[in-house]
Description:
2 copies of one chain form a homodimer.
Chain A: H1 2-35, H2 41-69, H3 73-106, H4 114-136, H5 140-169, H6 175-207
Helix pairs in contact in A: 1-2, 1-3, 1-4, 2-3, 3-6, 4-5, 4-6, 5-6
Amino acid sequence: MRTQFDKQLQTLHIELIRMGSLCEQVISLCANMLLKKENLSADINAAETEINQKERDIENLCLKLLLQQQPVAKDLRIISAALKMISDLERIGDQAADIAELAPYLADCDAPGKVHIGDMARATVGMVTRSIDAFVKSDVKMAAEVMAEDDEVDQLFEKIKLELMDLIRQNGLDAKAAMDLLMAAKYFERIGDHAVNVAEWVEYSVTGVHKNDANF
Amino acid sequence: MRTQFDKQLQTLHIELIRMGSLCEQVISLCANMLLKKENLSADINAAETEINQKERDIENLCLKLLLQQQPVAKDLRIISAALKMISDLERIGDQAADIAELAPYLADCDAPGKVHIGDMARATVGMVTRSIDAFVKSDVKMAAEVMAEDDEVDQLFEKIKLELMDLIRQNGLDAKAAMDLLMAAKYFERIGDHAVNVAEWVEYSVTGVHKNDANF
C-alpha cells in the first residue's frame, strides 16, 4: 500500500507543479498585457481554463487517495493541505483574469506606478514557484521565505497607492485610470496573499499546525 | 452505515449553518463599523477567529466522513462541495477583517457612496444565508438566485466607483479617502463573489457539474 501511496503522492506533486507553472504563466501574461500593451486575453483565458481543470483533476486525485489509501497523520495532512492549496492556485487564475479585464482601460495610462506592477508580477511568480517547491520538498524554511517575500509585494502595493494619490492631487492622472491601476495592483497583492496561503498549508502539512489553529 | 452517514451529514449541515451565521455577523459588523463609526474591531477579530476555527472543524468532519463512510456519487460530491465552500466562507471573514482595517481611515469620510456600502452589506448577508440554505436543502433554484443577486452587488460597486471618480474630478474628496472607500467597496464585492462560489458548489453537489468543468 505504501508504495502505491508514494506513487500517487508523486503524481500529486507533478500535477501541483503543473498547476503552479500555469499560475506563474498567467501572472506573467497579465503583467505583459498591462505593461507591454499586448492583447493576451485569449492566452490568459486559455491558461485560466486549464488552471480550473487542474483544480478539479487534483481534487479528484486527492479524494481518490483519501478513499483508497485511508491516510493518517502526516499523509492525511499532505492530502488535506493539497486540497486547500489548489483553491488558492485557482484564485490566482481568477485574479489574473481580473487584471486582464482592466488592462485595455490602462493601455494609455503612463503613470509611473505602472513599473511597480512589473516588480509585483516578478515577486509573485517567484512566490508561487517556491511555495509549490516547498510543498514537494516538505521544506518549512522555504515556506517561511515565501511568507516573508509577501512583505515586498505589500510594500509595492502601498507605493503604487501613494504615487496614485499624489498624481490625483496634482491632477496628473484621470480618476478612472488611477482607480483601475489601483485595482490591478490590488489583484497582484492578492496573488501574493494566495501564495502565502499555499506556504501556510505547506507548514501545516509538515508541522501539523496551521497559523489559523486556535491553539497556535 | 447509511443512518450513520445521515447523522454526520446533519452535523455537517448544522456546522455549516453556524459558520454561515458567523459570516453574516462579521459582514454586518464591518458595515456598522464603516457606516456608524463604532469601533467593532474586537468583535470582528473574535468572529473571524471563530470562522477560521469552524473551517478547521468542518474540514476535519468532512475528512472523517470520507475516511469512515467511503461515500460515492452524490454523497461524495456533497462532502467535496462542503470542503470547497468552507474556503469561501473563511475568505469572507478575511475580507471583513480587511474592511475593518480600513474603517478608521474612513470615519470622517462623508462621501455619498458610503450609503451603497450598506446596501452591499445587506445584499451579501442575504446571499450568504441563501447559499448555505441552498446547500442544506440541495436547492439548485435557490443557488441560482444567489448567483443572480450578485449582479446587484456588482452594480453597487460600479455605482460607488463612478461616484468616487466624479468626486475626485470635482476635488470634492481627498484621494486617500476615495481609494480607501473604493477598496472597502471592492471587499464587499468580493464577499458577494464568495457567496456565488458557495452557490456554485451547491449546484455541483446536486447536478455533478461545476461551471468550471471543461465539459460544461
